[in-house]
Design a protein that fits this description.
By secondary structure, the protein is mainly alpha-helical. It has one domain (about 5-195, about 240-415): Growth Hormone, Chain: A (Up-down Bundle). Helix content is about 80%, strand content about 0%. It is globular and about 60 Å long. The model is unreliable at about 420-428 (pLDDT under 50).
Length: about 425
């Protein structure tokens, strides 16, 4: 296999193959994030071409966000049962099919089916659960850094793709923008086939930071047990205060990022006279700041109290959201907002993953994080639809941004209630 050849060559240079797996995962999550963020560029073109309202389009996006999150625990179970590579390839194929089909849609129900259901299910098969799974399986040391890198790929992909998509859409139409995303997904699929592997033991390697090859843990004995395993894990952790704090704070995280800013920021700027390409450029600046902020968060999560990191991140984000309406939507004011907000766009992920692994153990960490991430996407769905409805009924997005800012401040305080001493919970 090509991956074996690469692993052998890297071993002669004392480079662990886990970094290759992390790089392929980074690329996959990057293009998946581009697919998730693309509709934010297409809201206004769809309104013009089909006459659909912001509330209608937002309802389809809300379904996508909800399914994206609710698939998380089951995606983790699928990865444990079928393997990483198979699940990732199926996810790429499903999303690619939904995007291609949407180029030919003419009715609103087709938007709901393709952008809501199909793309929601496909992207949900990977989501951030993929990054958490790779980090916990392949890395015993530098795990926080890896989680930070892979988390950064998600937000960075959503934001950095947008300027190019906005330019393609403005000059050639939204279907050409979708075609670019489809080509990027095909490249990612080739990399997954060639290089992605399920576990270090499959290549007779120890996890990074370990000396011995870890035995492959026993998986579900049947497909039924695999499908039931997320519910059993939820039953086991539902009595934990830490779980519900992480679930609720991640609900706020999703509402204040994917659901609100990713989906509606370009339309918000358009309401104040800023063209889509300029607004997308501000989002790209956020993506660049987020990359450094999230990687830095991964580094910090290996060294400091993760509860206080969450307190700082949510508090800073809340302040940024509440000062946005006072920027007058000038390039200077929005650039300041982009830096302040972008540094902690998704910096909350590394400390959240660390707290999950410390509290519930590494073997169940991906499924537990899948349930926590479901809260993230339910929050995104709530904000995506709520902000669109606010604009339709009140002709303004501003109330939604104020509410999101206050929720972030509340989340920062709740995070401090997580117990200080964490012990891995026993497996059921």
């Amino acid at each position: 296999m090509f991956s074996t050849f690469v692993a052998t060559r890297l071993a002669t240079r004392n480079v662990h193959y886990g970094w290759v797996v992390a790089a392929v995962t980074f690329l996959t999550m990057l293009v998946m994030a581009g697919a998730m963020g693309a509709p934010g560029v297409f809201i206004v073109p769809l309104e013009r071409e089909f006459g659909w309202s912001s509330a209608q389009i937002s309802s389809a996006l809300a379904i996508r966000f909800a399914l994206f999150g609710l698939m998380g625990p089951f995606a983790a179970a699928f990865m444990n049962y079928f393997g990483l590579r198979r699940v990732v390839l199926v996810a790429l194929a499903v999303v690619l099919g939904g995007l291609i089909g949407s180029m030919f849609m003419t009715q609103f129900w087709q938007l709901v089916l393709l952008w809501g259901v199909v793309i929601g299910l496909g992207t949900g098969l990977t989501a951030m659960v993929l990054g958490a799974t790779v980090a916990t399986r392949w890395f015993n040391q530098r795990r926080g850094l890896v989680v930070g890198l892979l988390s950064a790929s998600t937000a960075t992909g959503q934001l950095v793709f947008m300027p190019l998509l906005a330019s393609l859409t403005e000059h050639h139409g939204w279907r050409i923008g979708l075609s670019f995303i489809c080509c990027a997904m095909a490249v990612a699929a080739v990399a997954v086939v060639a290089l992605l592997r399920d576990r270090p033991a499959d290549m007779e390697l120890p996890p990074y930071g370990e000396a011995a090859v870890a035995a492959t843990p026993a998986g579900a004995t049947s497909l039924l047990n695999m499908l039931l395993s997320p519910w059993r894990v939820l039953r086991d952790v539902s009595g934990s205060w830490t779980f519900w704090v992480l679930f609720l704070t991640f609900f706020v995280c999703g509402a204040s990022t994917n659901g609100l800013v990713q989906t509606h920021f370009i339309s918000l700027c358009g309401d104040y006279g800023l063209v889509a390409t300029s607004a997308a450029g501000i989002l790209a600046m956020m993506g660049i700041c987020d990359f450094f902020g999230t990687v830095g968060s991964g580094w910090l999560s290996d060294r400091f109290d993760n509860r206080w990191l969450l307190f700082c991140y949510y508090g800073l984000r809340g302040i940024a959201l509440m000062i946005l309406p006072f920027t007058d939507f000038t390039v200077w004011g929005l650039s300041l907002f982009a830096v302040l907000y972008g540094l902690d766009w998704i910096a909350t992920v590394p400390p959240t993953v660390k707290l999950v692994a410390q509290t519930f153990g590494s073997e169940r960490a991906n499924i537990v994080f899948g349930w926590v991430f479901a809260g993230h996407q339910l929050g995104a769905a709530f904000a995506a639809y709520g902000a669109g409805l606010t604009r339709t009924l009140m002709a303004s997005y501003i109330p939604a941004f104020f509410v999101a800012g206050m929720l972030c401040v509340l989340a920062s305080l709740i995070a401090l209630s997580i117990p200080l001493r964490l012990r891995p919970a026993r497996a059921a």
